[in-house]
Amino acid sequence: MNFLGASLSLCSVLLRVDSNPCVVPSWLLLPSQQPKAWMVEWASSANIVLQRSNPAGAKAFLCDHCGAQFSKEDALESHRQTHTGSDMAVFCLLCGKRFQTQTALQQHMEVHAGVRSYICSECNRTFPSHTALKRHLRSHTGDHPYECEFCGSCFRDESTLKGHKRIHTGEKPYECNGCGKKFSLKHQLETHYRVHTGEKPFECKLCHQRSRDYSAMIKHLRTHNGASPYQCTICLEYCPSLSAMQKHMKGHKPEEIPADWRIEKTYLYLCYV
């Protein structure tokens, strides 16, 4: 189940668990307008019913683990069995990711809602989760705790290491449904799709030329008298990477940096994805 960005309002989702309907509480869903037509069509094909929250007078037996509601007590008891052992029965309806606690799920939902409440104390960039912030902080500390067993290369996070290992194993799990070409990394497939769609989401701030991907934009920027992708808004010095720009900014006195300064203002390109 993956319909990122989709949101349902004033509704609960009725999941068919065996023969017993399970009403997933509305706090799992993002606030928005009425369900779109495609949502209703998708739900129908997946045997999921979109409906208003509990009808007046209907009894609701509440699961104390995940908040799911049932119309019959025996259905609730059957459902509770899913919480035994190592199963993580609290899951996100938008992406299918599972969690051990209701609190963890609620924090995860902020990712889909676009909430970015975790702020880096080094560069003021914002992130949707503590995990994302923790991963980002390693770009400042230089910590690379994940080592490749094949070549010894080290990485900041486990997901990057997992993708790197595919270079050694030859695994290409991401396939284009347009031409069948396969890729090792998800972002490679997403970039490839733009060959078919013609989408060019990267725009040069200097001349407004568009590019399909980041690397092509960086090559283009160098045609502007060797410009690098990042330029200090205070002294106009170029930096070849985001980490270099962050290091450069530490050389400026605090009083030189405007109150509304953000690292994004140093980018010499715009990205519409």
UniProtKB/TrEMBL annotation:
Major place of residence: nucleus
Pathways per UniProt: Protein modification; protein ubiquitination
Boundaries of every C2H2-type domain copy: 61-88, 90-117, 118-145, 146-173, 174-201, 202-229
Record-linked Pfam families: zf-C2H2 (PF00096), zf-C2H2_4 (PF13894), zf-C2H2_6 (PF13912), zf-met (PF12874)
Annotated keywords: DNA-binding, Metal-binding, Nucleus, Phosphoprotein, Repeat, Signal, Transcription, Transcription regulation, Ubl conjugation pathway, Zinc, Zinc-finger
GO BP annotations listed: positive regulation of macromolecule biosynthetic process; positive regulation of multicellular organismal process; regulation of cell differentiation; regulation of multicellular organismal development; regulation of transcription by RNA polymerase II
GO MF term (any one): zinc ion binding
Protein origin, superkingdom: Eukaryota
Subcellular location: Nucleus
Signal peptide per UniProt: 1-19
One Gene Ontology CC term in the entry: nucleus
PANTHER family xrefs: GROWTH FACTOR INDEPENDENT 1 TRANSCRIPTIONAL REPRESSOR, ZINC FINGER PROTEIN
Family: Belongs to the krueppel C2H2-type zinc-finger protein family.
Official protein name in the record: Zinc finger and BTB domain-containing protein 16
Organism, as annotated: Crotalus adamanteus (Eastern diamondback rattlesnake)
